[in-house]
Design a protein that fits this description.
Helices cover 33% and strands 23% of the residues. β10 and β11 form a beta hairpin. α1 packs antiparallel against α2 and α2 runs antiparallel to α3. Bound molecules: guanosine-5'-triphosphate (GTP) and magnesium ion. Guanosine-5'-triphosphate binds next to α4.
Length: 332
């Protein structure tokens, strides 16, 4: 039986064969498997792709992805994810990336009043309303510098925060250069999931635009420029001098992850507001139970749900769709 594969399959397969980075190869292999029509004619191909996916996962887990150098040697091109999302801050030299990571996390990046101060990526954890987000500070992107590992780091991140420097006379040109440099590496920044990934070879990244050093943009003209370059994107005006603005940035980043917080409530006890379950938007009672433990999902008879638009303790079945900040009590 002929496989009848769609044209984008062949395009992606070509890119897959050329790609060296195991993380990117894994993403592509999973995409190839996803777009492959599932019928008898593709049984063999499906099986082969599953094997490739499994081998790539093992390779990555074993830390043996580096062709050169010792196994488990620290690599600059991959940072292990922690928390609800991995968020990479990118931007022109001196735009304020390190200052933001310094203010929001316990990491201690070098902040300096001269450009090119950050030499290596540095992760740190930040907490937004009980949600843990991993921020990564990075070296700048400019006509003089685009570290090769940045490509994989950005691809592996869940969210990109592009830090625009409102105090810079060359903000627009700097950003246009960054967008062009990313596109050359097949990375496209997008506003959210609603923007369809049309080209399977490209890596589309949900992006928040950080209009940083907001008080330096007295007439608002820089913010206007940003709104033109990034129509409908989440754009947050920030300053390290204003804590609220950085909290707003965290909020927008969490929204960009397209996930929700669900609080659990043991029967007869108060809800646990400290440690929410994080599930994708559109997630159900069953997804929340699964995220907690497979057994809870298996044994689930029904749940009681509290939250916006519901009666208190409303009975809900496994397929009930939850929204942000719902409280769920699982019943076996
Ligand atoms: N006015 C103002 N200055 C800021 C703000 N945030 C950072 N800065 C200053 O901007 C300069 C650069 O800050 P960094 O955080 O080191 O910038 P960076 O983007 O990490 O720079 P590189 O690592 O060289 O790419 C420093 O002098 C900071 O004090 C802000 O919100 N407002
Ligand atoms: Mg820096």
């Amino acid at each position: 039986m002929p496989a009848n594969l769609p044209p984008q399959y062949y395009e992606l397969e070509r890119a897959f064969k050329e790609e060296q980075d195991p993380h990117e190869r894994l993403r592509m292999a999973e995409e190839l498997h996803r777009i492959m029509p599932k019928h008898k004619g593709t049984y063999k191909l499906q099986a082969e792709m599953k094997t490739k996916i499994s081998k790539l996962k093992k390779l990555i887990d074993s830390g043996g992805e580096k062709v050169h150098g010792a196994k488990n040697a620290p690599t600059l091109d991959h940072i292990v994810k922690e928390g609800a999302a991995q968020v990479i801050l990118i931007g022109a030299p001196n735009s304020g990336k390190s200052s933001i990571v310094d203010t929001l996390t316990h990491a201690k990046p070098l902040v300096a009043d001269y450009p090119y101060s950050t030499r290596e990526p540095l992760p740190g954890m930040t907490t937004y309303d009980t949600v843990q987000l991993q921020l990564i500070d990075t070296p700048p992107i400019s006509t003089e510098l685009f570290e090769t590992y940045m490509n994989s780091l950005i691809r592996n991140a869940d969210i990109v925060v592009l830090v625009a420097d409102l105090a810079s006379d060359t903000m627009k040109e700097d950003i246009e250069f960054i967008l062009q440099a990313l596109e050359e590496k097949n990375i496209l920044l997008k506003k959210d999931k609603s923007e369809k990934a049309e080209d399977a070879r490209m890596s589309y990244k949900n992006t928040v635009i950080c209009a940083h050093k907001e008080f330096e943009d007295e007439d608002g003209s820089k913010q206007e420029q940003l709104a033109k370059i990034f129509p409908d994107f989440r754009i947050v005006a920030t300053s390290i001098l204003e804590e609220d603005s950085l909290e707003q940035l965290q909020k927008s980043v969490f929204e960009a992850t397209e996930q929700i917080r669900v609080y659990t409530k043991p029967v007869g006890h108060e809800p646990d507001f400290k440690d929410p379950i994080i599930i994708p938007i559109g997630g159900t009672v069953d997804d929340a139970a699964m995220a907690l433990h497979r057994d809870i999902a298996k044994k689930l008879k029904f749940a009681k749900v509290w939250g916006e638009g519901k009666h208190d303790g409303q009975r809900a079945q496994a397929d009930f769709v939850l929204i942000d900040k719902d409280i769920v009590e699982f019943h076996e």
